[in-house]
């Protein structure tokens, strides 16, 4: 068991989202990436803290890792965590994630959230060398 942020456990689920058939434009990919800090950040909802990291993006599905940390004190049963996550995802689809519908939600597993900083720049900066012309 990995603990972080005090006595709270960090849980990870993989959420599969499917673009709606009626969506004429490519839907935006859910993420908590901060362009200013260049890393994924924690956000807060009513009863949990969460971080969303895209995992797989294709024309048929979008998979994101959803890291959650219960805002309540004490250890919550797995069923309660699953129910909270399902309600959270359904609420986000209705309010913020237009053009997407829920495909599946995996079972929660204990995890460590990513701390990697995303580097964006030219291909030479990313590869660390110059390309031959």
TL;DR?
The chain has two helices and eight strands, in the order ββββββαββα. It has 133 residues and is of the alpha+beta class. The strands form two sheets. Strands 1, 4, 5, 6, 7 and 8 form a six-stranded antiparallel sheet that branches. The chain has a two-stranded antiparallel ribbon with strand order 2-3.
Topology:
Blueprint: E1 10-19, E2 33-34, E3 39-40, E4 43-44, E5 48-57, E6 62-70, H1 78-95, E7 100-105, E8 109-110, H2 123-127
Antiparallel strand pairs: 1-6, 1-7, 1-8, 2-3, 4-5, 5-6
Description:
This protein is of the alpha+beta class. It has one domain (about 10-125). Helix content is about 15%, strand content about 30%. Strands 1, 4, 5, 6, 7 and 8 form a 6-stranded antiparallel β-sheet that branches. Strands 2-3 form a two-stranded antiparallel sheet. It starts with 9 loop residues before the first strand and ends in a 6-residue tail after the last helix. Residues about 1-5 and about 130-133 have low confidence and may be disordered.
């Amino acid at each position: 068991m990995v603990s972080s942020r005090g006595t709270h456990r960090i849980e990870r689920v993989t959420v599969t989202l499917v673009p709606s058939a009626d969506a004429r434009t490519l839907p935006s990919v859910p993420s908590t990436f901060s362009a200013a800090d260049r890393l994924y950040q924690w956000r807060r909802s009513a009863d949990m803290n969460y971080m969303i990291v895209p995992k797989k993006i294709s024309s048929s599905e979008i998979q994101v890792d959803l890291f959650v940390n219960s805002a309540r004190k004490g250890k919550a049963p797995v069923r309660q965590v699953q129910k909270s996550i399902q309600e959270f995802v359904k609420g986000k689809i209705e309010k913020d994630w237009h053009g997407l519908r829920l495909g599946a939600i995996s079972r929660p597993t204990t995890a460590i959230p990513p701390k990697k900083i995303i580097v964006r720049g030219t291909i030479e900066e990313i590869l660390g060398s110059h390309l031959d012309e």
